[in-house]
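STRUCTURE:
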């Protein structure tokens, strides 16, 4: 609550009350208006918002003019509420929650603040009134309630109470205050106005106009709400959070806002030009010649050249950069692996023919190559940025649709539209709120967020109730994500296929989704998720069958004897491994009588340490979300020897041959058939145990259009329009 700060503020009331001790000429009354009143006013019932619609990507965007602010306009920099006061009022005190205004000529004071709402969600007017009365008790006597009711406080409905008393130092002067309280989701807005009673009468029109013009959510962190798309985010602290060459993250994450590549994926998963305007492919499918746009520029206006693209890719392939994903996303280019291995100083398959022409030579025809270039590790950075030091990525010369405007620790990350990007975003600002009070759902309901994901219980409730006011704002799509357990068949006891089969049969997928997501996610019996091309439920090999699991174990080389303790390697920093891991371990213990311990490994280093065998685990906890819509991104990336995310270092000749054939197969139907054969083999041999496919539940505000909810991390924030 706000009590402590309020009492501290009331101690300064002597500044105003001393002005009341000597009578002053009565202010000239303002002309009355038909609607101006501090008494209760009727409020219109909001019209239900239309169901959000998805609009096509704009081809031309006008840059909106800055919002004009009237004289006396004030917006709280942190709490986002706005108010317009007479130009001669003085704002003399402000803190994280509260702002105070004085009108010295009228001995009038107004305070407005925003605080966390009470747990019962009810306005705390009586507490507010009692604090005011206690704070004024040394200066005002006989405070008596003369009016109470409801009235509009901008677009909110507030409860109010009006009190009148006498100044102790000058009993001839009647002194009054009105207190207001309005709850909006997780927040309570409070306001109080104190002045001689004659001021309340004389300035009634001004006060009514001021209260009616109050805007609770007009601004967020000083940004005009009409120009700002707001969502939850995190504070980037390490280079990996912003450098496209490091870490991970989709094209709709921070890196994809700041940097762009030659191509991008649409919400319909087709590849379209981005920094490149066009490309040509040789007849044998191995040479791509890209032509860059004439209007491709960095944020400072410098033209982006083919050499900038080449140098960006050279940097990520430099082994000293220690880039995650470069072998996966650029490894098809001739010379990339040699560069990664330290056997070459440059990538032989890259040639900048001129400023606008880049030639890329592949080691074979790869139908999925263009889609790979939509992943951030392939995006273009300004090579001159490296001269700024090791933290250049916190002030980059952006090549993407936004620039990094500011980071306020523990509060917000702000991106602003990059006017030099060839397709300027319709929205001016993206604000990513850090560590807000309240849940994502409560903040969304209060209008503080434009988009938010939902916890499973909330998603299930809103999905199933058509009468829920949020029902038509909910978008649900199966993600292109799969949680799975990879098994190392080279380590005992999993070198025995019967043991692998027993563990696969002893995973209760339905129980997992019931326990972990209230049945909002999907039990997985395949590696490929349902939205992925090539997905087929027919490739599934095992479902939960405790008796069959026990029978498989009885057929193994461990029949009649206890299995050794099994180690499950997982990313983590210690502590409880979580409900998911605990549920898996409990079921294996119950069905197979086996003890499984957890080995937690630094998540950043997990792929390398796991792949290089610097782990104890025979089982490896894994999960994968597609970066582009091709089964190669799952099956080849996760199970081919030498690949970065092949945690168990699996190397199976039959599987390798299928994956190699699929890579270069140009006929789409034949490619998918090869991948289905590969997936069938992976599952039947027990090299991996899929457990769950994720489902995405997102609320999208009716004020937003052009924000498609898609199964994978396609960049969409630069498509958003605000109605």
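SEQUENCE:
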């Amino acid at each position: 609550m706000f009590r402590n700060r309020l009492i501290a503020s009331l101690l300064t009331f002597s500044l105003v009350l001393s002005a009341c001790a000597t009578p002053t000429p009565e202010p000239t009354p303002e002309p009355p208006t038909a609607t101006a009143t501090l008494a209760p006013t009727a409020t219109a019932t909001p019209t239900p918002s239309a169901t959000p619609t998805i609009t096509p990507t704009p081809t031309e965007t006008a840059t909106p003019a800055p919002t004009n602010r009237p004289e006396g306009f004030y917006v709280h920099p942190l709490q986002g509420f706005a108010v317009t006061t007479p130009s001669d009022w003085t704002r003399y005190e402000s803190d994280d929650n509260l702002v105070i205004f004085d009108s010295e000529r009228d001995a009038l004071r107004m305070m407005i603040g925003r605080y966390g709402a009470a747990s019962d969600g009810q306005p705390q007017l009586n507490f507010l009134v009692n604090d005011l009365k206690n704070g004024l008790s040394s200066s005002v006597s006989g405070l008596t309630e003369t009016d109470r009711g409801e009235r509009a406080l901008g677009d909110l409905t507030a409860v109010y109470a009006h009190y009148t008393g006498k100044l102790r130092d000058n009993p001839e002067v009647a002194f009054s205050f009105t207190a207001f309280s309005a709850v909006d989701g997780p927040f309570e807005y409070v306001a109080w106005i104190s002045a001689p009673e004659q001021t309340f009468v004389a300035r009634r029109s001004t006060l009514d106009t001021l209260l009616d013009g109050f805007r609770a959510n007009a601004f967020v962190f000083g940004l005009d709400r009409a120009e700002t798309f707001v969502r939850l985010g995190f504070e980037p602290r390490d280079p990996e959070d912003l450098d496209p060459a490091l870490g991970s993250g989709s094209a709709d994450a921070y890196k994809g806002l700041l940097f762009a590549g030659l191509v991008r994926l649409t919400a319909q998963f087709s590849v379209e030009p981005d920094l490149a305007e066009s490309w040509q492919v040789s007849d044998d499918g191995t040479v791509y010649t890209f032509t860059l746009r004439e209007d491709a520029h960095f944020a400072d206006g410098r033209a982006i050249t083919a050499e900038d693209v080449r140098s960006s890719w050279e940097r990520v392939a430099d082994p000293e950069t220690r880039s995650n994903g470069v072998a996966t996303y650029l490894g098809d280019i001739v010379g990339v692996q040699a560069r990664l291995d330290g056997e070459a100083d440059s990538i032989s398959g890259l040639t900048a023919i001129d400023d606008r022409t880049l030639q890329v030579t592949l080691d074979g025809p790869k139908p999925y190559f263009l889609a790979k270039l939509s992943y951030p590790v392939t995006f273009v950075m300004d090579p001159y940025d490296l001269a700024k030091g090791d933290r250049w990525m916190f002030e980059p010369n952006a090549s993407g649709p936004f620039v990094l405007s500011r980071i306020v620790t523990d509060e917000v990350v702000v991106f602003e539209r990059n006017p030099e990007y060839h397709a300027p975003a319709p929205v001016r600002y993206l604000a990513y709120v850090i560590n807000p009070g309240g849940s994502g759902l409560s903040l969304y309901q209060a209008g503080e967020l434009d988009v938010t994901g939902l916890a499973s219980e909330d998603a299930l409730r809103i999905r199933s109730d058509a009468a829920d006011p949020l029902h038509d704002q909910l978008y649900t799509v199966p993600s292109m994500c799969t949680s799975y357990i990879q098994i190392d068949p080279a380590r005992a006891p999993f070198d025995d296929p019967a043991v692998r089969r027993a563990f696969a049969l002893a995973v209760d997928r339905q129980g997992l989704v019931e326990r972990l997501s209230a049945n909002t996610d999907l039990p997985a019996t395949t590696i490929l998720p349902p939205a992925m091309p090539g997905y087929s439920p027919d490739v599934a090999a095992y479902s939960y069958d405790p008796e069959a699991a026990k029978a498989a174990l009885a057929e193994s080389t461990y029949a009649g004897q206890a299995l050794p303790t099994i180690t499950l390697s997982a990313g983590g920093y210690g502590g409880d491994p979580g409900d998911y891991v605990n549920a898996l371990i409990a079921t294996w213990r119950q069905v197979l009588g086996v003890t499984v311990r957890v080995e937690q490994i630094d998540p950043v280093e997990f792929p390398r340490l796991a792949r290089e065998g610097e782990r104890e685990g025979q089982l490896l906890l894994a999960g994968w979300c597609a970066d582009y819509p091709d089964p190669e991104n799952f099956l080849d990336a996760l199970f081919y020897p030498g690949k970065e995310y092949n945690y168990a270092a699996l190397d199976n000749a039959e599987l390798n041959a299928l994956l190699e054939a699929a890579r270069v197969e140009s006929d789409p139907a034949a490619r998918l058939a090869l991948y289905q054969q590969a997936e069938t083999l992976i599952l039947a041999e027990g090299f991996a145990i899929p457990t769950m496919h994720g489902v995405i539940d997102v609320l999208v505000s009716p004020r937003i259009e052009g924000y498609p909810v898609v199964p994978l991390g396609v960049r969409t924030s630069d498509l958003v329009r605000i109605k």
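REMARK: Confidence is low (pLDDT under 50) at residues 1-67.
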